Q: What sequence folds into this?
DNA sequence: TTAATAGTTCACAAATATATAAACTAATAA
DNA sequence: TTATTAGTTTATATATTTGTGAACTATTAA
């Protein structure tokens, strides 16, 4: 029986992207570092909820955080996350276009 | 209030990757088309379970299927899925290496 | 028509993920 | 010290995901 550990670990990284709020966070962090407060203002979610999502993203290794005074800063650990994410967005857009082509004939 | 529909749709694509079995399926379909039977033999899961996972992947738009006689064939709809997936794998490997660096000093 | 093979659908139980609110901790300022 | 700001943790309720087995449908062969 083949060892499937790698698939579990790999899917954990993917799970970190598998939520609308977390996708939005990746989108807005794209190429910059932002504070917790800034992310909260843009997304408009409860701080407890945001903290849980950010914490999940940090522990899955896609975000890194640092504290400066009272503020916590967050950024993507690597450009690759943003690139992979953009690639998925392209797949989405292509699929939406295909569906549109199918539907417009009716 | 900003419209978050795009984030929901985008996260649906990501959810299609957010499971160990589905990652394995993407891995083995990498550049070829396989039958249900072949995927089942490689992964070793129940056919009902496999069918549900494949169906989810098809309806989220990352796989396409075609029937030929008694057999159902599956393949990735686009190369981009495999590329995005490989990119995530690289992020995982980098993180594992970082953790290893941290741990080996103890 | 009957049987066999291939896969899908359904119902259900168990596990995980999510949002909320309240209580908590850390850092700075008064 | 006390208060304030910034964020985390915890408990809890709800929703979603997952695996299993049984029943079902579709295609081909006897």
A:
């Amino acid at each position: 029986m083949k060892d499937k550990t790698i698939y579990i670990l790999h899917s954990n990284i993917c799970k970190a992207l598998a939520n609308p709020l977390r996708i939005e966070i990746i989108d807005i962090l794209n190429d910059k570092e932002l504070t917790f407060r800034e992310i909260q203002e843009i997304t408009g979610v409860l701080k407890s909820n945001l903290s849980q999502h950010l914490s999940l993203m940090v522990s899955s290794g896609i975000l890194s955080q640092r504290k400066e005074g009272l503020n916590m800063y967050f950024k993507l650990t690597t450009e690759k996350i943003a690139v992979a994410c953009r690639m998925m967005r392209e797949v989405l857009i292509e699929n939406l276009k295909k569906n549109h082509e199918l539907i417009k004939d009716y």
Q: What stands out?
A: Residues 35-37, 47-48, 50-52, 55, 67, 69-72 of chain B lie near DNA strand C (CB under 10 Å from a C1').
